[in-house]
């Protein structure tokens, strides 16, 4: 289907509809991936492996 509009409200409506169709049909492609790297000393324990670090249960042993 081809639709044309010279200018004005019809053109803006077509542009808005075109943006909706593109947003619905275009797959999401990530532009980058940021790996999460966690380094711990041997005497640090119970560090959660999640995207949000919460240190409520983290402890350090004497060995």
Write structural notes for this entry.
- The chain has one helix and two strands.
- The chain has one domain.
- It has a two-stranded antiparallel sheet.
- The chain is mainly α and 63 residues long.
- It is 27% helix and 6% strand.
- It is rod-shaped, with a radius of gyration of 26 Å.
Unreliable stretches, pLDDT < 50, 5 or more residues? none
Percent of sequence in beta strands: 5-15%
Indicate the percent of residues in helices.
Answer: 25-40%
Which structural class should the secondary elements be placed in? mainly alpha
How is the main sheet built? 2 strands, antiparallel
Domain unit count: 1
The number of distinct helices, counting runs of at least 4 residues, comes to 1
